[in-house]
Amino acid sequence: KGKAKGQKGKRITLKTAKNSIRITFDGRRRLDLSKMGITTFPKCILKLDDVDELDLSRNMLKKIPDSIQRFEKLRWLDLHSNQLEELPEGIGRLQNLAYLNLSNNKLTTKNLPVELNLLKNLRTLNLGLNRLDNIPTTLGALKELKEVSLFDNFLTAIPTSVAKLPKLKKLNVKRNPFPDPTQQEEPVDSIKRTETLYLVQEKDLCCSCLKICQDERDKLNKIKNTIPSPSQKPNFNSLITPNSTAKENQEQWRQD
Q1: Which ranges carry the Disease resistance R13L4/SHOC-2-like LRR domain (predicted)?
Q2: 197: phi > 0 → left, psi -120 to 50 → alpha, else beta; which?
């Protein structure tokens, strides 16, 4: 007989969940259900919503229910290496959350809930190895963030509001298709650039300074008037050969 459609994950009972609670070195209660082949969020663990930490990493979860908000004491949530395509709005209710690992999933920018910006106590956020093509500027509201990981996505820019978070110490954006930093913008026309230096009104200048500025402006106007427009560019049809003398002199100069 052929295999049944879809994968049927391990069923987690309340007894199994209770036996999976560990005490961390700093005395916190961690519910560790990692690497158990879970495909559906086990509803029974909602009866253990007083734990401090929840580890559901390295399973096959596609969805986290909105009822995750019942874990009000949660400070640490690890969901990395699942198959999550979206997050529930209720995740924004976890006001005590300091650590959130969402790496190695299938999250897109469109399915990141706006409520993420409510996690005011969040210090570590890992969104690496997902399918994000941009980062919401609203994440800049998370002023307590110290570490942000955005590696292996499809990002072409990082919002200034995120890059300049006041307490940010580590920002990992490796292996994203950012534009080549060696590419430079088109050079600005020198005359236009000079014109932008006139930033004061004439009435604010003394007589001598005003005279100098007016003379400089007259010079610029003369230069502009001598530059041919695209339709009036000079035609050098009679110039058949290059200036070989200048070329030879230049090569000789470089050799000296």
Answers
A1: 68-192
A2: alpha
**CATH of the domain spanning 22-172, picked from 3.40.50.1240, 3.80.10.10, 6.10.140.1670, 3.40.50.300:** 3.80.10.10
Task: Provide the residue type at 207 as one letter.
Answer: C
Looking at this protein, which amino acid is placed at residue 192?
Answer: K
pTM (2 d.p.):
0.69
Within the chain, residue ranges assigned H as helices are: 14-19, 160-163, 190-195, 207-226, 244-255
Alpha-carbon distance 185 to 122, whole Å? 37
Cα torsion 194, 199, 202, 206: sign: negative
pLDDT digits (tens, 9 = 90+) for 170-191: 999 999 999 976 433 344 343 3
d(CA 21, CA 31): 4
Exposure of 79 by Cβ count < 10 A (0-12 exposed, 13-18 middle, 19+ buried)? Answer: buried
**Annotated domain spans of the chain:** 22-172
Give residue for tokens 């050098």. Answer: 236
Contacts of 179 (CB under 8 A, 6+ apart): 156
Tens-digit pLDDT profile for residues 146-177: 999 999 999 999 999 999 999 999 999 999 99
